[in-house]
Amino acid sequence: MNIPKAPPTTTRPADFTAEIDGVISPLIPTLARAHRAMSQELLRGTGLSAGQELLIMRLFDGPPQSQAELTRWLGVEPPTTAKMLARMEKAGVVERVRSEKDRRLTLVSLTPAGRALHERVSSVWDDLENVTTAGLSDSEVQQLESLLRRLISNLLDDQGSPDVPS
Questions:
Q1: Is residue 34 within 8 Å of 13, Cβ to Cβ?
Q2: pLDDT 10s digits, 119-156
Q3: In CATH, which of 2.170.150.70, 3.40.50.11890, 1.10.10.10, 1.10.3210.10 is domain 43-125?
Q4: What's the N-to-C CA distance of the chain in angstroms?
Q5: Residues 6+ apart with CB under 8 A from 60
Q6: Coil, strand or helix: which one is 110?
Q7: 64-79 burial: b if 16+ Cβ within 10 Å, else e
Q8: Are 27 and 11 in contact (CB under 8 A)?
Q9: Residue 111: left if φ>0, alpha if ψ -120 to 50, beta else—which one?
Q10: Of 9, 51, 92, 124, which one has the greatest count of Cβ atoms within 10 A?
Q11: Where are the domains of the chain?
């Protein structure tokens, strides 16, 4: 498998984190940016931008979903989803139609062209997973997944908490 390197404009995590050993919080956005840049590189040639592949995967096996459901699932603001879907609709990848049951809802589904992208997107996800976890054992990958899920849970569980450590 010939996996491209991240674009040269991407800030290298080792450079960014050299001065802040032992501090985890700055590593998280650095990891997210590097992961997104690699995702974008791997998606080159598909006509998709990083983030849009998530919708291809989400809509492939399921029924049409409301724009509001997709917004909640993506964890973004409604205008972000609207812009993303508008671009994807213009490219012929998704279609948006009013629900016949509830005219207030816009339902989103893949077009045949969008469905045809699924296999390529699935391959990109496999490649991204391999690049991201290169050099880790199966046990380390499982441990990393568990730790990341715990961090997410910690942050989501704490969002509504008025208790701030002193």
A1: yes
A2: 999 999 999 999 999 999 999 999 999 999 999 999 98
A3: 1.10.10.10
A4: 50
A5: 110, 115, 118
A6: strand
A7: bbbbeebbeeeeeeee
A8: no
A9: beta
A10: 124
A11: 43-125
Q: DSSP letters along 98-149, please?
A: E-SS-TTPEEEEE-HHHHHHHHHHHHHHHHHHHHHTTT--HHHHHHHHHHHH
Q: What's the pTM value of the predicted model, to 2 decimals?
A: 0.73
Distance CA 108, CA 112 (A): 13
Structure-token pair, residue 9: 């404009």
Angle between helices 52-60 and 67-74 (to 10 degrees): 120
pLDDT per position as a tens digit, 46-61: 989 988 999 999 999 8
